[in-house]
Amino acid sequence: MKALILAGGYATRLRPLSFAKPKLLFPIAGKPMLERTLNSLARSGVDSAILAVNFMADELKKHFGSRYRRIRIRYSLEEKPLGTGGPIRLAMRLLGSRDNFLAMNGDILFDAELSNMLERHRIEKPVATIALYKVSDASRFGLVSVDHQMRVSSFLEKPMGQEPVGGLINAGIYLMSPKVFDYIQPDRRISIEREVFPILAKEDRLQGYELKGYWTDVGTLNDYLEANFSLLNIESSGKAVVQKEAEVSSHAILNPPCLVMRKARVGENAMVGPFTIVGEGSVVEEEASVQKSVLFNDVHLGRASRVDRSIIADGSRISRNVMLGEGTVLGAGVSVSAALRLEGGVKVCPYKEVTENVMGPTNIL
Ligand code: GDD
Ligand code: MG
Hints:
By secondary structure, the chain is of the alpha/beta class.
């Protein structure tokens, strides 16, 4: 089966991380998000993936090339972003007009096996079946109502109200029949959620299928941290995991759950965790401590520095005796001079040098 993965857009809510890296390459508990998605899809019988790309397409191509494990990978490049519906129409030739296919948002994580959903789709024969997930606040999502046979009776994208409304939301995974192409005009930006699903619901041609188990959308920096913590906890079974070729001093303290990746180094009397990932080649020097945080690759945390609930992107260098308080986010290649304090949610753009104390919330551009 073929799957189209929406992998474009600017990920503005994930700045400054998304300035230097497409969000689908952000590591989640040590693995790029899109690798996780491809693994999940392979388990559901997908053997061919089409990545719908625009902004930073080259980074994705460089990482995945034309194959990931048993999945063939092709790219459908938009000159201008075409939204969530336009890319499906654009890839029509690659998807073919005969078979059902999967389409999905690239920024979600899930562990469900989709074969039951496929089975329901084959029996019910709607134009599309959308995976649904129960949440207590639907305001950031597409709110979906279904009848007793799981036919979608209404689809409302980003419902705005005074009070949060809970219920079933669009989980961003769709099984589609090629008939869907008739509902998407070519060559223009289209929101599948606002312009296609409400029409299909009205025509009674949209089916719902409730997903159980783990599901999350990685839309914000907070979602990003929480997704790391959840998957780290599940995959480490709540333990401290040290990958091969990592060097951890026998006088370091690892508080579980945590993950020290390949070629990383943790020095004497340093403290890592709980809920922390030290990325490949990253260094936590002597007496430094880092908790509830994600360090991407090749980050250097200097002697006796402290990091709490922060995200630090590739190649950033934090000198000694620095304090990074909750909510700090450093883009790639940032440097922070010795003995500084960044507190209250400071976000720093890639390749900036921070040379004085900063009290947030502040963005350093
Ligand atoms: N190729 C391409 N082109 N991809 C795009 C574009 C574009 O112009 N715009 C967005 N995308 C991709 C994003 O990378 C993301 O993977 C996916 O489309 C969805 O876009 P988001 O911007 O993340 O949407 P959202 O999270 O606010 O809402 C969507 O997802 C929710 C579930 O996670 C909607 O589908 C909601 O209905 C849904 O509940
Ligand atoms: Mg999203």
